[in-house]
């Protein structure tokens, strides 16, 4: 099964959308292929979408959707194939100050290394409350899947792309692998505990999503909700990643602050972190602990 579906990505924008305009400039500068589509062209290419309130759009034809769980499994497989150990366990955070030589797992194992990297997502502030409490802020994020009528190809690739409705702060994926039409608000939800937080979608959240679907994708007005998920973002005050040394341990690295866009940057971020930990890359000031205010 594929790790990546090259569906293309469609961004929807208002007339005076400064963010989308800056995005165009960035795409040009880094050489990413795209098309700028006017309202009439959007309606012609994607008749299954009602473009009320949308003035123009950006199409990135070579972009698409990563299959996250499958990709993580593939990384674990490659680590094991390369001679690394994949251990499913939890560790106790380092105590005191100074260089550490080993970590104890809750399963009773001891891990020894010259350097340690804690890339623990929303669990980082729980592991290091004195350093990261309030600086990494996990939020509850709800995701919805709508059933697509049998035989209706309008909501599957290639007829529909991954899309992001910037004016409405909502994004979605076409019906990939017959799982359903996925969509979610791209707004920060309430504070969330990744260990004890309720993983059931709030029933009050369904109505606004249904109203949006009826407005933007009218053919799915009565589509059933076939699956819901509760996940989390791990946000920083400036939305940038955290890649920095622990202030009390010179060989402990703290990596996180994905802020809703960490996974898609994984390959580049992983290379950068590896180079930083090995001493072969300059520090990016924007990723420092000092730039992360309390939320």
Can you put this structure into words, describing what you see?
The protein is α+β, with helices and mostly antiparallel strands. The chain has 2 domains: 4-67 and 143-231, D-Amino Acid Oxidase, subunit A, domain 2 (D-Amino Acid Oxidase, Chain A, domain 2, 2-Layer Sandwich), CATH 3.30.9.10; 87-136 and 238-291, FAD/NAD(P)-binding domain. The chain has helices at residues 18-30, 39-45, 68-81, 124-127, 129-132, 206-216, 266-278, and strands at 4-5, 9-13, 35-38, 56-60, 65-66, 102-104, 110-112, 116-118, 137-146, 162-165, 170-173, 181-185, 225-235, 242-246, 249-256. The strands form 4 sheets. The chain has an 8-stranded mixed beta sheet with strand order 3-4-2-10-11-12-9-13. Strands 8-15-14 form a 3-stranded mixed beta sheet, with no helix packed on it. Strands 1-5 form a two-stranded antiparallel ribbon.
Give a brief outline of the structure.
By secondary structure, the protein is α+β, with helices and mostly antiparallel strands.
Shape: globular
Number of helices: 7
The level 1 CATH classification of the largest domain is: Alpha Beta
Low-confidence stretches: none
> How do the strands line up in the largest sheet?
3-4-2-10-11-12-9-13
- Major sheet description: 8 strands, mixed
The name of the CATH architecture of the largest domain is: 2-Layer Sandwich
Helix content: 10-25%
What is the quaternary state of this protein? single chain
Number of domains: 2
Overall strand count? 15
Approximately what portion of the residues adopt beta-strand conformation?
25-35%
Computed over alpha carbons, the radius of gyration is 21 Å
The class by helix and strand makeup works out as alpha+beta
Distance between the termini: 40 Å
């Amino acid at each position: 099964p594929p790790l990546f579906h090259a569906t293309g990505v469609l961004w929807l924008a208002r007339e005076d959308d400064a963010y989308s305009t800056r995005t165009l400039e960035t795409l040009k500068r880094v050489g990413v292929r795209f098309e700028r589509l006017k309202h009439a062209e959007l309606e012609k290419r994607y008749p299954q979408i009602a473009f009320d309130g949308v003035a123009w759009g950006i199409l990135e034809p070579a972009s698409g959707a990563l299959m996250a769980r499958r990709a993580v499994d593939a990384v674990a497989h490659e680590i094991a194939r390369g001679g690394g150990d994949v251990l499913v366990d939890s560790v106790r955070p380092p105590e005191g100050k100074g260089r550490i030589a080993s970590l104890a797992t809750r399963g009773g194992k001891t891990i020894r290394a010259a350097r340690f990297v804690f890339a623990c997502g929303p669990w980082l502030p729980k592991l290091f409350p004195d350093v990261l409490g309030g600086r990494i802020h996990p939020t509850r994020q709800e995701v919805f899947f709508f059933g697509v009528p049998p035989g209706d190809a309008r909501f599957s690739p290639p007829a529909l792309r991954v899309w992001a409705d910037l004016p409405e702060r909502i994004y979605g994926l076409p019906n990939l692998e017959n799982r359903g039409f996925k969509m979610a608000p791209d707004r920060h939800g309430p504070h969330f505990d990744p260990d004890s937080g309720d993983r059931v979608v709030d029933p009050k959240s369904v109505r606004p999503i249904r109203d949006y679907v009826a407005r933007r994708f009218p053919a799915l007005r009565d589509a059933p909700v076939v699956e819901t998920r509760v996940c989390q973002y791990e946000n920083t005050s400036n939305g940038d990643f955290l890649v920095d040394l622990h202030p009390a341990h010179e060989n402990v690295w703290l990596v996180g602050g994905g802020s809703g866009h960490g996974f898609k940057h994984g390959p580049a971020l992983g290379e950068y972190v590896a180079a930083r930990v090995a001493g072969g890359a300059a520090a990016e000031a924007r990723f420092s602990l000092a730039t992360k205010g309390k939320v």
